[in-house]
Amino acid sequence: MTEKPNERLEQRLLKVISKEVRGKRVSCLRGFLRGLSCIFYVLVQLRLWLHKHRIIRAKTLGCQVISVGNVTVGGTGKTPIVETFSRSLQQKGRKVAILSRGYKSRKTPFWDKVLKKNERLPRVVSDGERLLLNSELAGDEPYMLASNLPEVAVVVDKDRVKAGKYAIRKLGCDTLVLDDGFQYLKLQNRLDIVLVDYTNPFGYGNVLPRGLLREPARNIKRAGFIFITKCPPEGAPELKAKLREMNPHAEISECRHTSKYLQNVYTREQLPLEALNGRKVSAVSGIAVPESFENGLRRLGAEIVHSAQYADHHRYSQQEIIETINQAAESGAEMILTTEKDAVRFPRIERCDLPVIYLRVEIEMLSGSDAFNDWIDRICFR
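Predicted structure:
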């Protein structure tokens, strides 16, 4: 497994934050990170205060704006929620555009920025009719959303005010969904949806860089709707009660990610989930919580004989895939399993000795589905 230096650093820091590693040096490092967290905390709260008192003014675009985001960094299962929400709005008659910053998409060359080339227009991944960009240019999550939502526009730009104006004026959209938008305060008059990961709801209890919180957990009070993701089948009553104390007014839904089917990355052939039962597989993932993916494969009856874990949003090279296939074959694997988010980052290869399959996952609501449908209706018929 080949990792870039920044990916190795990211994984080492995560082990320090989670107290997976111990020792005198590590304790000193955690103390240093705690000091940085205090500075970060003050800056975050100051920014919120400036926006709240309109010292920094937000923009109004004259249409419905919904943000879907987290209070923590890392994987909370946000993309399937964005997909479900956007599809529901589109099916109710809204012309929807998803606005994304395109994390880990190809950057604009430095001299193009200096000369202000290609900076006037945002990147349109999909105009609601056609898929226009690949995953490298768009970013893996915007590309995946555009592929799964053929009638929803997907626009990528760090400046989502500019992206929103473009979606309204050029694509005729009347509803904007901000992907990862809870901390994006430049757009006013919006509804905030926040996702909380049942397995690590408050990011080890500290803001960055000592913990994984983007802002203090109590700021979840800004949310109008809270999804508790990755719940066990019985739900999350204790976490739900705690969130209700933090935010008495928000609707709260417990949900989990449910596997739907398997699909070949290269041939697009679909297979039933039963095809995994009793099979020896290689698990390959570049996501925030690879353990959840691998545990899901085991629950479906697969035996993992080889595993390759990369940093979140890792962009695979052709050589890495070839090496992974060879290592998996040597380990006795019958197929290679990956996530849908990883699949869009897999390069084309000329020869594939093992089938490369991704697991299609969708959201299943365990509670709060009526409240969710009421929310959709209020948005669509406002």
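Summary: The chain is about 35% helix and 20% strand.
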